[in-house]
Amino acid sequence: MAISRRDARLASPEFSSDDKVTVHFINRDGDRLTAEGKVGESLLDVVINKNLDIDGFGACEGTLACSTCHLIFEDHVFEQLDPATDEEMDMLDLAYGLTETSRLGCQICLTKKMSDMTVRVPEAVADAREAIDMGKKV
Ligand code: FES
């Protein structure tokens, strides 16, 4: 079967360069990290793929079980995000330093509108799985 011109364009590596999104992270210690991700990747994917040194980030690998991927968004970006699911809200409740513009990085996928956004990583991390474990011991 012949490949259409459109399919060839979609398959070409140049096409994907349009899908790059630059994201800045303010790390726990205040350092700024900048990385590029692709539209559709989660912020957890960006941290992992670009090997960003963010202490304890993404401990449950995006399975909504830890809240270590807690990020704080700028107001104008936060307003454009899809609403959080009940599962994400439950995990956020266990996150350290929750704010009005907090979300979980493993649940937020990049869009072009997020280009050059800055997200803040809270100063400390709370792993919800440990809180649950500790709760069980008491
Ligand atoms: S990586 Fe664990 S909840 Fe996002």
From TrEMBL:
<dbReference type="GO" id="GO:0008203">
    <property type="term" value="P:cholesterol metabolic process"/>
</dbReference>
<keyword id="KW-0411">Iron-sulfur</keyword>
<dbReference type="InterPro" id="IPR036010">
    <property type="entry name" value="2Fe-2S_ferredoxin-like_sf"/>
</dbReference>
<keyword id="KW-0153">Cholesterol metabolism</keyword>
<dbReference type="InterPro" id="IPR001041">
    <property type="entry name" value="2Fe-2S_ferredoxin-type"/>
</dbReference>
<dbReference type="GO" id="GO:0005759">
    <property type="term" value="C:mitochondrial matrix"/>
</dbReference>
<keyword id="KW-0753">Steroid metabolism</keyword>
<feature type="domain" description="2Fe-2S ferredoxin-type">
    <location>
        <begin position="21"/>
        <end position="125"/>
    </location>
</feature>
<keyword id="KW-0496">Mitochondrion</keyword>
<keyword id="KW-0479">Metal-binding</keyword>
<keyword id="KW-0813">Transport</keyword>
<keyword id="KW-0443">Lipid metabolism</keyword>
<dbReference type="GO" id="GO:0140647">
    <property type="term" value="P:P450-containing electron transport chain"/>
</dbReference>
<dbReference type="InterPro" id="IPR001055">
    <property type="entry name" value="Adrenodoxin-like"/>
</dbReference>
<dbReference type="Pfam" id="PF00111">
    <property type="entry name" value="Fer2"/>
</dbReference>
<dbReference type="InterPro" id="IPR012675">
    <property type="entry name" value="Beta-grasp_dom_sf"/>
</dbReference>
<comment type="similarity">
    <text>Belongs to the adrenodoxin/putidaredoxin family.</text>
</comment>
<dbReference type="GO" id="GO:0009055">
    <property type="term" value="F:electron transfer activity"/>
</dbReference>
<dbReference type="InterPro" id="IPR018298">
    <property type="entry name" value="Adrenodoxin_Fe-S_BS"/>
</dbReference>
<keyword id="KW-0408">Iron</keyword>
<dbReference type="GO" id="GO:0051537">
    <property type="term" value="F:2 iron, 2 sulfur cluster binding"/>
</dbReference>
<keyword id="KW-0755">Steroidogenesis</keyword>
<protein>
    <recommendedName>
        <fullName>Adrenal ferredoxin</fullName>
    </recommendedName>
</protein>
<dbReference type="GO" id="GO:0046872">
    <property type="term" value="F:metal ion binding"/>
</dbReference>
<dbReference type="GO" id="GO:0006694">
    <property type="term" value="P:steroid biosynthetic process"/>
</dbReference>
<keyword id="KW-0001">2Fe-2S</keyword>
<keyword id="KW-1207">Sterol metabolism</keyword>
<keyword id="KW-0249">Electron transport</keyword>
